[in-house]
Batch of 2 targets.
Target 1
Amino acid sequence: MSTTLAANSIAEFLNETDLWFIGKLSPETALIISACIHAAILFHVFAVCPAVFIWLERKGSGRIQDRLGPTRVGGRFGWLQSLADGIKLVQKEDLCPPVADAMLFKSAPYIVCLASFAAFVVLPFSHGWVAVSADCGLFIMLAILSLEVFGIIMAGYSSGSKWSLFGGMREAAQMVSYEIPLAICSLIPVVAAGSLNLGEIGDMQGGAFWNWFIFHDPFTFVAFFVYFVVATASCKRAPFDLAEAESELVGGFHTEYSGMRWSYFFMGEYASMFAVCGVAAILFLGGWHTGLPFLDVPLAWLRAEGGVEGYLANVLGAGVFASKASFLVFVQIWVRWTLPRLRIDQVMITCLKYLVPISCFLFLGAVIWPLVFILVSNAITPGTVRTTIMEPIGARVAVGYTEKKQSSDSPSSIGPSAPAESDAWGSSGPAEKHSSTDVKGGSLTVGLSTAEVVR
Amino acid sequence: MSILFTIFALAACLGAVAVVISQSMARMAFWLVVSLGSTAGLFFLADADFVAAAQLLIYVGGTLVLLVFGVMLTASGPYLKIQTSPAETVVAGLIGLLFLFMVFATVSGVDWEGTKTKMLAENGQSTPTEKFDDQSEGDTLRPLGLALLGVRPDSPNSPGYLLPFEIASVHLLVVLIGAAYLARAKRRGDGS
Amino acid sequence: MQPDLTSYLLVGAVLFVCGVVCMATKRNGIGVLMGVELVLNGANVNFVAFSKYTALGLDGQVFSLFVIVLAAAEAAVALAIALNFYNNHLTIDVDRANKLKG
């Protein structure tokens, strides 16, 4: 595969080893084995996320409604409740209504599950901990998350029930319109970062919490809240859960489903909640950086060093990232049990009349901001130091491109067993990334001249 | 690589065939998703990751949802089926097979390597042009973006695509207005 | 065997032919639309394949991007027309669209 795969590091390791029972592994076999290992790890993340969040949802809703929530299963806090639910759901009968289109009805839950699982492929958990480090990772992420709609519409349409059909139609209308502000809002920090690679965006925000993109300028600050609202709607969570409004549509698109197929929808829903919240954490909240300068600087140094300490630093980073994303998921749960549900026309009006114009305005503002910032700061104090983050986006894009061009003179390493590719990740750490543009004055001027051509 | 290619290619082709064969509109939409999604997989394999993601986002996430929406809105029964007569199907299938055979024969008859070297020789370049994907294959994002803004670092002679890009954006605006106008709800007694 | 240009072109050809047959045989307006999408996709596969394997370079990918965007626009307009047609005729059987008046 073309883009940098995390599996390459394991593949490299397997390449070296001489297994006594099959002899030396071919590079392709090594890649396939390591890809399978990665897929298994990711799949477990995907499977554990819903279990934890469903427990959290039950517990949270219980507390908000002045109840206790699950208490019995698995000790004091009922933390095995999701597992027990899962076992119960597996045992249930897998019903398919006679009027349903059986093939579509049965395959729809898999589409939903597949879409939200595939989103985890490009989601980085820590520095370099990503299955596929694609250069347009965010774009791929948005694209994959938009596939989930199709499964839900299919489920609604093929159930052969009025409730499901209405749920499916609502979902289609809602998702198609909410995708627009979602994409625009996630582009706002991209404008500030100058990259679509989620890993790079996360690395840029190291150092301290004022480097997080949410505090980058006023537009990104507002954009975070708009993004969060839109993300809540695009996971069809309350108060936007019109597709499954229990009081009007029985269960919406999943009225006719039972047993495991029903639970696939919920696995998909909770997993995609984690995915959009993870994207929010990376884009706005500094990803795997703690935000505390006295912690972040040594951690970044450890990561650059590599070895066991770097690995442990990455584990810590993954923990920080997961807790940030889980907090956002918790806020979604909190909102769900606090706010009443909107009507469908109110949902559409919220999107088309308010969120789309707001996000367009924020996008424009975020594009103009660096120019205004530089002009104003130069007017007040001439000769202010320009950091990388203040550069106009065109300059940074061009610098990145010319740097890539220059580094491509080294022997190219494409293919499954490329040894240099996993190292490319390590060397593009935050420290070197920021300093490289300052040190390489020559490449910067090249980049600036290209940027002027762009303008 | 070749295994993945085979899987995606088979899924794309079989999905396309199933679109033609199936009679129910919803199933056609489903098979179209399978076909277009695996085509996106083929694009990933061909180092065109931005195009692949655009295909997923625009086709599968946008256009097909729109199509299914249309199927739902225009369905008169629970599962819309408009049968074609068997004779038509047979004739169309035969013509399609003939056409497929013709295209296959043409494609496999051309010596692509020879054409490539010939083209390069005619253009006065002894070596192939510097490709956009020297080290970072699949990293097409920056070159694509620069090309759409009219800058071509990879091939300086090319003029870039700024004008087509602007035309496409105006075209999209026109389409937006036109589609909204065409599909607007007509009120009775409005005169029209 | 690594996939080469010919195998990509063959996939493109299959998609194209399926699209043409779909356009020719389906009597449902939206089915015809799906055929158009398949045809455009077959062309896209060819563009991307040529961009990878020949001296065409990046131009093929830019072209396929334009194709995708224009296909989306085309689908939106065609769907609006289909809905309008359904409002007037209560069916989207394209064979019934034989009167050139509203």
Note: Chain B touches chain A through 48 residues (CB under 8 Å).
Target 2
Amino acid sequence: MSLTQDLLAQNTVQLNSKIPLGSIEDKWDNYKADMKLVNPGNKRKFKVIVVGTGLAGASAAATLAELGYQVDSFTFHDSPRRAHSIAAQGGINAAKNYQGDGDSVNRLFYDTVKGGDFRSRESNVHRLAQVSVNIIDQMVAQGVPFAREYGGLLDNRSFGGAQVSRTFYARGQTGQQLLLGAYQQLARQIGLGGVRLFNRTEFLDVVTVDGRAAGIVTRDLVTGEIESHAAHAVVLATGGYGNVFFLSTNAMSCNVTAAWRAHRKGALFANPCYTQIHPTCIPQSDDFQSKLTLMSESLRNDGRVWVPKNPNETRPAHEIAETDRDYYLERLYPSYGNLAARDVSSRAAKRLVDKGQGVGPLKNGVYLDFNEVITRLGRDVVQERYGNLFEMYERIAGENPYEMPMRIYPASHYTMGGLWVDYELQTNIPGLYAAGEANFSDHGANRLGASALMQGLADGYFVLPYTIGNELAPMLGKTIPGVDHPEFKKAEQAARDQYNGYLNIKGTRSPDWFHRELGKIIWDRCGMERDEQGLKQALSDLPALHEEFKTDLNVTGDGMSLNQTLEKAGRVDDFFQLGMLMCRDALSRQESCGTHFRTEHQTDEGEAKRDDENYCHVSAWEWGGDAMSPNLNVEPLEFEAIHLATRSYK
Amino acid sequence: MSNSIKNLTLKIWRQLGPTVKGTFETYNVEEISDEASFLEMLDYLNERLISEGKTAIVFDHDCREGICGTCSLMINGQAHGPQRGGATCQLHMRTFSDGDNIVIEPFRAEAFPIIRDLMVDRSKFDRIIESGGFITAPTGGAPDANLIAIPKPVSDSAMDSAQCIGCGACVAACPNGAANLFTGAKVAHLNRLPQGQPERFKRVEAMVETMDEYFGSCTNHGECEGACPKEISVDVIALLNKDYRKAKFASRKDLAR
């Protein structure tokens, strides 16, 4: 018997993924034909809470309100337009086949499953590919200024992991334009009264009554007031947890709090160890560094990656002779060269930096050199292609990449893991949904470029508005628990106690200090490469540091006014607990797949070695009462439409 | 290569709440790497304040790569500081020299009440968008995206104004506290596109009237363009005025009927 089946027999929670019947092409149509509907006049009798206003949250809130539901939308930002979806640069995939190059829904489906290294649920991914075409229509109708050809039709570019051009883009600001489109649709509903907006309001807890999500508890960040909100259904569209590394390309306030506290209330957390590292970010420059900035991966089309052969090299880059340079990607991967896959080139950079061959003042980067292409094509051509990126680099690093090679290094960027959801995007708590980066469903062990925006909008515009109705229809006429229910009062009191607790420790270290130390452990032990010894070490270091956090935290100010230090304390506390689960998950998955690279499991060429016999499953963890004793549940992954194959880009 | 900047004197606005009197407090930063960003310098100062048992300075920030529009700050009297075409989060300490005095204030405008210290309430911008800064396109009914060909120059110029990050620097820099650059940028984005035509005049009327409720009047100083981190041109204000005038004439005809 395989390990998957052994584990399945020990599941503590009944996991029903609710995959509809029929062939892969028919599943979504079959679902829609069979689902229960709420009559238009009855929709206003239902209240839905949507937490988060990024692509998934804003599009879900706007669409649910258009349908007639009463929607309460929550964001901790000052405005819904600030969510971190805004920072996505590259583009959004869709199987439009506008270029006539052989794209189709099935091909996008296949590329996404293969890109995820066969660790995602087939039926969800196929639906994603199907609705991708509707997203582009919808966003153009809203006025998103996608790039166009001179003839006026939409332009496409190609992206990693695909052999067709299916990526739609708006300069280097695709995420911004899509988010503003969704935000404007949300704003229209706020103006019409269909959505009530709660800005500068942070989610603290989900409240369950008789096993069903009954509402949420929030904290008004300006007044410190803790309040309850009741609803028929709750959607968490609260993003990923990449900031567990402290240094990442995420925005400063991105956090895992909503997903984590839902997890503590019983929602399963799936595949937390699948975290994506992006190879081309600007390296850390000093100890005060607060975040890392991503440079578009497109730069690798023309830049050559190298390090000096001599670890004690002191000359500036342009004085180092060709023979003293190691163009290691070209040497190690002759066929793909500088365009080797994200995870492969990230690990190669890490190994050389670990060997002391890194460049820059902290010796923590590798060179990305444009000298060859500038000589070959001229500076004007390079400026046309990458002008804005070069300018952005110079602004941050203070060096001119036309003269000095850029310095780059990998950084945490996106998290594929998240709350476990079924085909309807419902967690194992009835009435509680997770959408966008907050759920685990579509990207498996690795996400392809330009697919995050696609998934966020697919969930919010084209999936949740259907599946939530199916859940709500039978609730018509039933009364739901109000905010005076004892469970709400209990959750409010727990939240007050928790935040007062942080204020009363009066230790010596700030939340940021703990976050930085936590990030170092996770990055070293559960980053680009993991091994048993390192993960075990992390699982002994993390609880010790968390103990210190609980006794030596210093939060100044008070709880009844705006206090950013206090907000941060709650988020760091949750990151600690998530970090432990990440390491536990990475330790238990004794294979390499996608971004999860266990050094014990690699091929002779240093590629990830999967173990489909024993690990072709989703690991969904149940909170076991404390952060160190979670219960593992598995959902076996079945591949009917696609054959399990070794992922290779050779 | 990394050097350090020494002996900075910071005069920072501290204010407990919207109705409490605020004041400048002086802080010294003895040494900071020139690689640090301006906001990292404030992080560093805050860490020190916390270790001294004092409350940290409150300021808005998030993406730290110049796109979310959350950060603000008047630095030595300039919105987003001395650099052009960038937000405060993109400003680095290498712009400053040893011994500099730096005055840090919140964005000041009647429509942006101070919440605490350097954080202001810019939600009036959302009210403007809610009144008309959208195209009515309910989910599900959209035709194929390539059905309408849009000339590249039209699409490009819509994109130029769609880049606005909604930070409020234009309002803070304006002697009248006007929001015409912000409103004009959204009107120019949507009114230039074919999809925006059906609601063109209704949109501009609603947005301008909401804007007038909260913000000052534009008298063409052009300070907004100089402060804009996305360098949006004041031309959008001309378009805003032109469309508003047309909308008003059109509705006068409607009234006469």
Note: DSSP finds eight helices and seven strands in chain B.
